[in-house]
Amino acid sequence: MSKTNTPESAPEEAAEQAERAEQEAVAQLSTAPAEDRTPTFAKFGVIGWARWFWRQLTSMRVALILLFLLSLAAIPGSLIPQSGTDQMKVDAFTKAHEHLGPLYDRLGLFHVYSSVWFSAIYILLFISLIGCIIPRTWQFVGQLRGRPPGAPGRLDRMPAYATWRTETGADEVREAALTMLKKRRFRSHIAGNAVAAEKGYLREAGNLIFHVSLIVMLIGFATGQLFKSDGTKLILEGDGFANTLTQYDDFSSGNLFDKDTGLEPFSFTLKKFTGTYERSGPNKGTARTYQADVTYSEGADGKEKNATIKVNEPLKINGTKVFLSGHGYAPVVTVRDGKGNVVSDHTPVPLLPIDSNQTSTGAVKVMDGYKNAKGKKEQLGFNAFFVPTFAGSGKGNMFSQFPALDFPVLALSAYHGSLGVDSGIPQNVYQLDTTNMKQFKDSKGELFKKRLLPGETMKLPNGAGSITFEKDVKEWATFEVAKQPGTDWALIGAIGAIAGLVGSLFIQRRRVWVRAVTGSDGVTVVEMAGLGRSESAKLPDELGGLVEKLHARAPSAPDPSEDSENSENSEPTDVPAAEGAEK
């Protein structure tokens, strides 16, 4: 049997329809998917559990938790030495901490950004963001293509509400309201006896832009870490560098970097390093000029070009940047054997600075061509200590007083024997391994050492030869050659995320309804109501402004309870105030 409507059921159905319309109107003004907070775990199967896990993973709450965990996971990478950045510091840390070092190694704390647990957080966050964005984007597109929902049955239940009676016709009121709302950039249309309007879609657009920008930023960072390359090279004035792997003093790269094709083909030569320093005042010794003049060419047969590299002003060659990262001095020395034959002629020896005034240490190594006084082949080694500005004898320790070459002094201590370079074990060129070497002794039986001024010679005991500090000190510069793709995308993502966040925080999405119905007495009853996504004091004020505009087009009708004489002498009716607006 078909169901028939009875007079008793008609009011109930009308009430249900009004309730449904009201629920639709006050639905959440967001593209966020509804969460099932009461899952029936007993009925879950494999598919059910998979759906539940996916919903949890793609929820905004889990995405924020993963983002927080990623920030925490990056902290060890800043505090603990990383093998990809400085393996020597990792080795030193492991030797200094016998128990903690192996534990850190097992936990992947020496290579945080390529560890399994960091990658897991990174990938889960990436999946979570994509899972959040795709359904919300389609839902937002559907909202843009659709129309604002019709007015609910009870507008007086809305947070902001106003009503008045007018003699203007209902159709005319609705047309005036529609025109007014469109001028205020509301998406509006007439639905039944009311005008439905909505504004603030950029809030959800900003929300989506924020999340898309986070993905772009993650892709940029991941690309940079996986395909990056970073190397350093010390170059003397007049020497050059070609961007090949064997030319680097130190080199590190990402896990997916191709060492055969990833290096950009170019070369450059250091013509001159220029450094000037403050001579007085509280900033004495601070660099005023710090730059390297170079000539470079791109490719195998590129044309030579001139460039100047300064601090924070690198040389850029097709995505590769050459930074000026350090500077020092290289005293020029000449070594002769016991017969006066030149073994090493005018050889610059780069020394590493240990303070801001360029006090420098290093080693002079003579590996081939030297014979002692007895004609036997040996190797020579000298521990070197250099100061560009010497304080003077008896004026404190052997430390430089100023970084410029005002009073250069080179201090040497001499050894002979085997440097150990033929053992196949890599050595630090700036340190002298004296394990298989003997000291030259002075007349007191102590280590033979001497301070030299430019042009002076240190003669070794027993006619073993000599070393001369020539009247020349070359300068060197260290360059960092870095290539990190994805940085532009990361910057674009960061800017987009900020813009999207601003939009989602400061733009409020809200709905406005204007209902005009002609009563039995022929007077039109106008109702206006507003609803925002969140509580805001601006919504009643905005609705009050709209009421004022519409009231000017449809003024209040006289109160029918007053007689005509009083109504002629009475003042015009005030504009009705929206509930919740400030008085």
Fold and architecture overview:
A hairpin with a 5-residue loop joins strand 11 and strand 12 (342-348). The relative contact order is 0.14. The chain has helices at residues 9-25, 46-57, 60-79, 87-96, 100-107, 116-145, 170-183, 202-227, 487-506, 538-553, 564-569; strands spanning 160-166, 187-191, 194-199, 229-236, 240-242, 250-253, 266-277, 287-298, 305-310, 315-317, 320-336, 342-348, 352-353, 360-366, 379-387, 409-417, 437-439, 449-452, 457-459, 466-483, 510-518, 524-532. The protein is built from eleven helices and 22 strands. Residues 1-5 have low confidence and may be disordered. By secondary structure, the chain is of the alpha+beta class. It starts with 8 loop residues before the first helix and ends in a 14-residue tail after the last helix. The strands form four sheets. Strands 4, 6, 10, 11, 12, 19 and 20 form a seven-stranded antiparallel sheet that branches. Strands 13, 14, 15, 16, 17 and 18 form a six-stranded antiparallel sheet that branches. Helices cover 31% and strands 28% of the residues. Helix 3 packs antiparallel against helix 6 (116-145) and helix 8 runs antiparallel to helix 9. The chain is elongated and about 130 Å long.
Offer a few descriptive terms:
583 residues; alpha+beta; seven-stranded antiparallel beta sheet; six-stranded antiparallel beta sheet; 11 helices; disordered N terminus
Strand-helix topology:
Blueprint: H1 9-25, H2 46-57, H3 60-79, H4 87-96, H5 100-107, H6 116-145, E1 160-166, H7 170-183, E2 187-191, E3 194-199, H8 202-227, E4 229-236, E5 240-242, E6 250-253, E7 266-277, E8 287-298, E9 305-310, E10 315-317, E11 320-336, E12 342-348, E13 352-353, E14 360-366, E15 379-387, E16 409-417, E17 437-439, E18 449-452, E19 457-459, E20 466-483, H9 487-506, E21 510-518, E22 524-532, H10 538-553, H11 564-569
Antiparallel strand pairs: 1-22, 2-3, 3-21, 4-6, 4-20, 5-7, 7-8, 8-9, 10-11, 11-12, 11-20, 13-14, 14-15, 15-16, 16-17, 16-18, 19-20, 21-22
